[in-house]
Amino acid sequence: MRYIIAALIGKTAMLLMLPDHYSNGKPQMTGGYSSFEPEVREGEFVFYYDNGSVKSREHFKTAKRTGLYQYYYRNGRISVESSYLDANLKVSTALMIV
Length: 98
Prior knowledge:
It is flat and about 40 Å long. Strands 1, 2, 3, 4, 5, 6, 7, 8, 9 and 10 form a ten-stranded antiparallel β-sheet that branches. It has a single domain, classed as Histone H3 K4-specific methyltransferase SET7/9 N-terminal domain. About 10% of the residues are buried. The protein is mainly beta. The protein is about 0% helix and about 65% strand.
C-alpha cells in the first residue's frame, strides 16, 4: 500500500491520501484523511468496481459526509444520488434502469 502525504507546515493542515488497489492493479478507492486515529475523512472519496468503473463518489468535511453522494451501477449509470449537509441526508433519489 502506498501513502501520499501532503502537508502544509506552520498552518497545521495535513492530508494523507490513501489510494487502494485490487489485486489486478485497478484502483479500489481513493481518498484523503486528516487523521487515521481517529479516522477523519476529508474531501472526495471515490470507490471503484474491480473493472475500473466508478462505484461511488462521496465528500467529507471533518469526517462528516457533506454535499453530493452518488452510487453507480457497474455499467456507469447512476443508481442513487443523495445530498448531505453536515452528515444529515437532505435529498435522496433512487434511479432505476428499465
